[in-house]
Design a protein that fits this description.
single chain, transmembrane, transferase, membrane, 62% helix, Sig_transdc_His_kin_internal, kinase
C-alpha cells in the first residue's frame, strides 16, 4: 500500500511538471497577440509567474474533485452536484485572481483579451475561457489517475494469479512427493522381505533421492543437469530390484545451466516403472533419451508393459504432471502412445517461450 502511494505521488508530480510546461508554452505563444510590444524575455518571465499562480487554483480543484469522486460515499446525483459547485467556485476564484491580481501585478495592465480591454470581472466570454482552462486540466488529471489505477489493478490481478499458481504448484508437488516415496518404500519393503544384501545400498540411494526431493525440489527451478542426476539415482534404485531390467539411458545437453522446474521429468520415469516395468511378466526394458539443444528439450521414454494392464492402476502421477506442464510450460508438446506391449512418451519443451515461475 505504501509503495502504491509513493508511485501515485511520483506520477502526479510528473504530471504537474509536464502540465506546467505545456501551459507555459501555450500561454507564451498566445501572449504574442495580447502583448505585442513586450519583449519575448519579459513575456516568458510573466508567463512563468502567471501559470505558477494558476496552479494554486488548479491543484486544489483537481484533488477536491478526485476526493469527491473516490472517497466520499454519496449517491451519484449528490456527487455530481458537489462537483458542479466545486467547479463553479474554482471558476470564480480563477476569474478573481486573473482580473484583480495576476494581470495588474504581473503585466502591470488591466486584463486584456485579444488586445482589447475586458469588460469586467466576469462575463460570458471570460467565464467560458476560465471554465475551459480548468476543465481541460481536470480531464487530464482524471485521465492520468484512471490509467494509473487500471495499471495498479492489472498488477494486483497478475500478482494474485501468480500467488494462486504458486499455491497450486506447491499442492501438486505435495501430492507427488508422498506418491514417489510410497512407491520406493514398497520396493525396499520387498527387498527386505527377501533379505537382499543390496538393501542398505538402496536405502542410501533413497536417502540421496529424498534429499533432492526435500531440498532441491523446494526451489522453483533447478538446472537440467541436477534434475537428470536425480533421475539416474532413481533408476539405480530400481535396477537393483528389477534384475531382468534392461536400461538404455542417453543424454546430450548443450547448456548445463538451463533451468527447469524440478520433479517434472522424473515423474515419467516413475510411471514407466510402476505401470510398465513392474507389470511386465518377461524381460522388462526402459529406454530414456534426454536432449537439450538451443533451448529446446526433447525427452523420450519407451518402456515395456503388460499387454492387459490392471484396470485399477493409478495414474495420479501422470495426471499431476500434465497439470504442472500446463501451468509452467503451456506451449509444450506431450505425445503419449499406448501400444500393446510398450508405452512411449515424447515431451518437448521450448525454454524460449515459458512462463516465469
Amino acid at each position: 500500500m505504501k509503495s502504491d502511494s509513493q508511485s501515485k505521488w511520483r506520477i502526479h508530480l510528473l504530471f504537474w511538471i509536464l502540465y506546467y510546461i505545456l501551459e507555459i508554452y501555450l500561454d507564451f505563444y498566445w501572449s504574442r497577440y495580447q502583448f505585442p510590444d513586450f519583449k519575448w524575455q519579459i513575456r516568458l518571465q510573466n508567463t512563468f509567474m502567471l501559470e505558477l499562480g494558476y496552479l494554486f487554483v488548479k491543484i486544489p480543484l483537481a484533488y477536491a474533485l478526485l476526493y469527491v469522486n473516490e472517497r466520499l460515499d454519496l449517491k451519484h446525483v449528490f456527487k455530481y452536484i458537489f462537483c458542479i459547485l466545486i467547479v463553479i467556485a474554482a471558476v470564480l476564484v480563477h476569474r478573481f485572481l486573473t482580473h484583480y491580481i495576476f494581470y495588474p501585478e504581473i503585466y502591470g495592465v488591466t486584463e486584456t483579451l485579444d488586445g482589447k480591454h475586458a469588460t469586467g470581472f466576469i462575463n460570458g466570454y471570460v467565464a467560458f475561457n476560465s471554465f475551459m482552462d480548468l476543465i481541460f486540466m481536470v480531464g487530464l488529471i482524471f485521465g492520468v489517475e484512471i490509467t494509473r489505477q487500471k495499471n495498479v489493478l492489472k498488477e494486483q490481478i497478475s500478482q494474485l494469479k501468480s500467488e494462486k499458481l504458486d499455491q497450486e504448484l506447491t499442492m501438486l508437488k505435495a501430492q507427488i512427493n508422498p506418491h514417489f516415496l510410497f512407491n520406493t518404500l514398497n520396493n525396499i519393503y520387498g527387498m527386505a522381505l527377501k533379505k537382499a544384501d543390496e538393501t542398505p545400498d538402496v536405502i542410501l540411494q533413497l536417502s540421496k533421492v529424498m534429499r533432492y526431493n526435500i531440498y532441491e525440489a523446494a526451489e522453483k527451478t533447478i538446472s537440467v543437469v541436477k534434475d537428470i542426476e536425480n533421475i539416474k539415482d532413481f533408476i539405480q534404485i530400481q535396477k537393483i530390484r528389477y534384475r531382468q531390467l534392461t536400461v538404455n539411458f542417453t543424454e546430450n545437453i548443450d547448456n548445463a545451466s538451463q533451468e527447469i522446474s524440478p520433479l517434472i521429468l522424473i515423474q515419467f520415469i516413475e510411471n514407466a516403472f510402476k505401470h510398465g516395468v513392474s507389470e511386465t511378466l518377461g524381460e522388462a526394458f526402459i529406454t530414456v533419451d534426454i536432449r537439450l539443444k538451443n533451448g529446446i528439450l526433447t525427452y523420450f521414454i519407451e518402456n515395456s508393459k503388460q499387454e492387459q494392464p490392471h484396470e485399477h492402476s493409478t495414474k495420479i502421477g501422470l495426471k499431476n504432471i500434465r497439470r504442472q506442464l500446463e501451468l509452467l510450460y503451456p506451449n509444450h508438446t506431450l505425445s503419449v502412445e499406448d501400444k500393446n506391449n510398450r508405452y512411449i512418451i515424447t515431451l518437448i519443451i521450448d525454454f524460449h517461450d515459458t512462463t516465469s515461475h
